[in-house]
Write a structure and sequence with these properties.
heterotrimer; A: about 230 residues; 9-stranded mixed β-sheet; about 20% helix; C: alpha+beta
Amino acid sequence: MKAAVILFPGSNREGDVARALHQATGHEPQIIWHSDEELPQGTDLVVLPGGFSYGDYLRCGAIAARAKIMTAVRAHAARGGLVLGICNGFQILVESGLLPGVLMRNTHLRFVCRMQHLRVETNSTPFTSAYQNQQIIEVAIAHGEGNYVADQNTINLLEGNGRIAFRYCDALGQMNAQSNPNGSINHIAGIYSEKFNVLGLMPHPENLIESLVGGTDGRGMFESLAHFKSAA
Amino acid sequence: MKARIIVTLKSGVLDPQGKAIEGALKSLDVSDVLGVRQGKVFDIEIAAANKSEAETKLKMACEKLLANTVVENYQIELL
Amino acid sequence: MSHTEPKITPELIADHGLKPDEYQRILQLIGREPSYTELGIFSAMWNEHCSYKSSRLHLKSLPTSAPWVIQGPGENAGVIDIGDGQACIFKMESHNHPSFIEPYQGATTGVGGILRDVFTMGARPIACLNLLRFGSPDHPRTRHLVSGVVAGIGGYGNSFGVPTVGGSVNFHTRYDGNILVNAMAVGLANQNEIFYAKATGVGLPIVYLGSKTGRDGIHGASMASAEFDDKSEEKRPTVQVGDPFSEKLLLEACLEIMHKGCVIAIQDMGAAGLTCSAVEMGAKGDLGIELNLDDVPCREAGMTAYEMMLSESQERMLMVLDPSREAEAKAIFQKWGLDFAVIGKTTDTLRFIVKHKGEIKADLPIKELGDEAPLYDRPWVAPPALAQIQAADIHPPMSHSAALLKLLSTPDQCSKRWIWEQYDHLILGNTIQKPGGDAAIVRIENGPKGLALCTDVTQRYCEADPFEGGKQAVAEAWRNLTAVGALPLALTDNLNFGNPERKEIMGQFVLAIRGIGEAARALDFPIVSGNVSLYNETQGRGILPTPSIGGVGLLKDIQKSASLAFKKAGESILLIGETQHWLGQSIYLRDICNREEGSPPPVDLAVERRNGDAVRSFIHNGRVTAVHDLSDGGLALALAEMALAGRLGAKIEAPLAKAPLHGWLFGEDQARYILTCAPEAESAILAECAALNVPCQKIGMTGGQDLVLPGETPLSLAQMSASQEDWLPHYMAEPIDHGLSAH
């Protein structure tokens, strides 16, 4: 599985996700500069990493979403290619229209970095096949603008079509104000595109791939991706 | 030509920043504040042959970048 | 010289922070009246912050070398050898006065400044820490300052992309008008790719890198050297605004040109901006510097030479470039969207010449600008010795359980989770030990090595006895690193004191330095970098003397490290070190008995060494399961912290020695640790300690969900947790939106 990680000015978790991909696939992903016009031949997975692209200026992900490389990323997604947007990457995906909704400031107005439990809402996607359905996992979050907001129609569409990828919860799978770190509607931590080939999520599975550094619940995502065989 | 663009949240969209500012004003004894919503101002200098052309260009700037039309409105004022 | 600049008057000289005799010195040095721009240059180079005029005489006595020290104080940061051809580059610096005036931006630019000091030497920053001292929680400004400083530190570090992994936060009324924000940065470099500020080669281009120059912070360095008075609020415009995004771009661009070999010398522009960096580059290399300000990228129109020389706009560097690489270097900077401008050249005249619009605005002797800065041997007086408090003379006002529960909820001892969860402490995926322990641990690349990092100081000890307090600050840092299994290698310091023109304050400074030096020497823990912040006073009331210590230790194998959480029920709890029930200047005496009295616990450096080396060897041999060093609150607080971290209780036996129990539980005797081990391992550890002459006794066993102190009702984990976790979030409950101060 060939992966390309897009680097924008201000991206800062490209190394973290490259490490997770290398661990799962045995290959280093290619790092692609934001102003390039094409993705490498045969790219299966495009990753938009975490960070503060363009300093989060104007709106998080707003300027990155309009970068040159995004034309190629959109085309790749339209062909059914896989796209993974983590944290700032999720913000870029909603700003670019590849996913619906908006990510706004955490309701308590503070940046939050902590461990967070998530429920895996579906394991029948290329991103989650290595997890159990409804499995509770513990990964890290680190964001100031992760509050997922969308109008009621969009929410109904996402819920109705099973496009919620992950929800915030506690260790027992309960969902309440304490287990929701940023106020997201319906505790939404990540969502899929219509064809389930684009995933955006706020949490950082790439930081939970070694027990020495806090746990291995993040590995499942990268193992799922490593085992993905493209249709063509 | 100079223009001022004001971008605000659509009514109904939750604005926790505005709420926090409202609380802070109250605690500073600025009385009778009944509500606050935070927005952004862009002061733009733009080359255009006439007002109508300027407005068209600025509208495009808003639609394409300055406002996230999912949750924000914009107003253009030519100065 | 230009006639459009203001005329030099006594008022103007005073406004520049120069005393009449200092101005006389200038006249003697250059043989004429200075121009306005030259006056600005002297005021920047000769103020306390840049020249260290009150402190450098005494700093000379500090031990700064060891076989593993590659570069001691005098450069942008200190450099130590950590094996395998790698170096660790680190420093701590303060941004106290600006943070009081504008907490978000003051803290943010403090972090930005220290990061630049580290990466200007070629090191990629891998961790940040900080030490914060705030006023009394009851003071009307405190909450706002805490909120702003914490948001600012997170705002910069998180965006720049470096994990903030540790810190120390205390509150005391003596910081009401003068908070302390000390920021530490740690970076990694290859030993053969370290860059210094010293310019070499005549006729080489001097290049300006980074963000454009504006009017930020003009006279910021002078503000750092002046006390606050009623007019301080008006100083708001002099605070700089930081841009972590630009700094991230600057980091990547600088490391790229460094790796490509384009850089001969490089220095970041910090306090006194272009002036300080250009003068130091030339002076260090025994070269002259000629600058043409027409080429300086400006973001404001019509900036004068004076303004350009003194601007403290952030995220800028100055570099001496290999001329054959100019095109290549410029292309790299353009790729990252940053300014790159040749603004001058090195010369062999030893003159510092500044030109603007065809005129010479400054022509000064470059070495003398630094070398002839005033050097003061200020008069000082030692504080009176305080009486030793006997534990037997203290009558506990409440039960020991109640006292422990109360201490857990005090501002100094409570959980600082509300603070460190605003710092991204996980980015880069190498954080082995997060905030909350004795020291942070970050893995070096993919391992197996790691660095242990800590910041701390016990300012109440320093106030009571600056010499013992200075010793203790170093000893405790050394202990913190040892407690996680690291070998302490070197330290950085940030010496925060009041007005040195007052004899008592100067006495605190001189004696603290002596104490720091003695401990650093005895523990082979040299000072490789540091910062001095003086004049931390408001209307004559100064801070507690606060010589912050930032420690760095090496773990050869991160798997052989220790943490403080109790791990398993049924393990033996051992106390290392001797307890003499020292309650003088203890947290128990202050927060339970409401007395800030007595001489502080003495530090026996030989005992520190012996006890610590033994503990470290137990950790390396895998014989112990948890380790915690004892400090504030003594034994009882340490046990509570271990129980809470491990979510596991303990039962503690009464000590055999006949002595007041509150002295045993809360005394702050130094050189002590708590260890846990499997019961089978206990006798071997006891025997080895006996052979090493290290006091060691079993004091209890882990187990259950309560902490049971001798003769006391059990304290449940739930009770202790509520006590520890609740104070800070409740105190900070009213949300303050710093989005207004941020981008």
